[in-house]
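Dear H.,

Thanks for agreeing to be a second pair of eyes. The structure we're designing against is below in token form, covering all 176 positions.
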């Protein structure tokens, strides 16, 4: 069945993909990325308070990832809200700040508690971002759209389908 962005992609293929991922091109990019990370680590050691750099990177990741879901804020709004703990800001900027908090929650769960990436951890991260107690999405109708409101992707629908896909992801990550 051809991909239709307006229909739930319940046929999302299982992992691992049927093709080899460690191609020559991918390995060259991995080497370049490793070199860039080493340079960043060296530059980071020159900064007296590395937490400032880490927080800024986390905020930018949160901002850019949120834009995928049309949650848009400016750097100015974001850093102003970060400085006053989001007390006087708009809902989009508050959600980006929660996204940053969710990133740290996931990072700490993995790093400090040696917690694997699981459906439960994904649910915890979602709950932080959306300020909810909800778990895996049960209701239909979720769509990702571009700024012109054109649907570009409709994720899988149905709690059982989503849980099956997440279980496959967990299995793939634990085997890697």
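And this is the sequence the design step returned. I haven't edited it by hand at all.
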């Amino acid at each position: 069945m051809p991909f239709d962005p307006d229909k739930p992609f319940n046929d999302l293929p299982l992992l691992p993909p049927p093709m080899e991922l460690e191609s020559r091109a991918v390995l060259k990019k991995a080497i370049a990325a490793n070199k860039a990370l080493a340079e960043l680590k060296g530059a980071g050691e020159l900064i007296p308070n590395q937490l400032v750099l880490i927080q800024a990177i986390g905020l930018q990741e949160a901002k850019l990832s949120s834009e995928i879901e049309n949650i848009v804020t400016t750097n100015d709004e974001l850093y102003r809200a970060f400085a006053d703990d989001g007390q006087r800001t708009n809902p989009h900027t508050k959600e980006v700040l929660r996204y940053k908090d969710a990133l740290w929650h996931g990072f700490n769960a993995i790093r400090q508690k040696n917690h694997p990436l699981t459906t439960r951890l994904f649910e915890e991260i979602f709950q932080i971002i959306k300020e909810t107690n909800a778990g895996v999405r049960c209701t239909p109708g979720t769509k990702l759209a571009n700024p012109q409101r054109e649907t570009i992707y409709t994720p899988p629908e149905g709690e059982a389908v989503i849980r099956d896909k997440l279980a496959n992801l967990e299995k793939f990550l634990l085997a890697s």
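Two observations from my side: The chain has a mean pLDDT of 89. Helices lie at 24-44, 50-67, 75-83, 91-111, 119-130, 159-175.

Warmly,
E.
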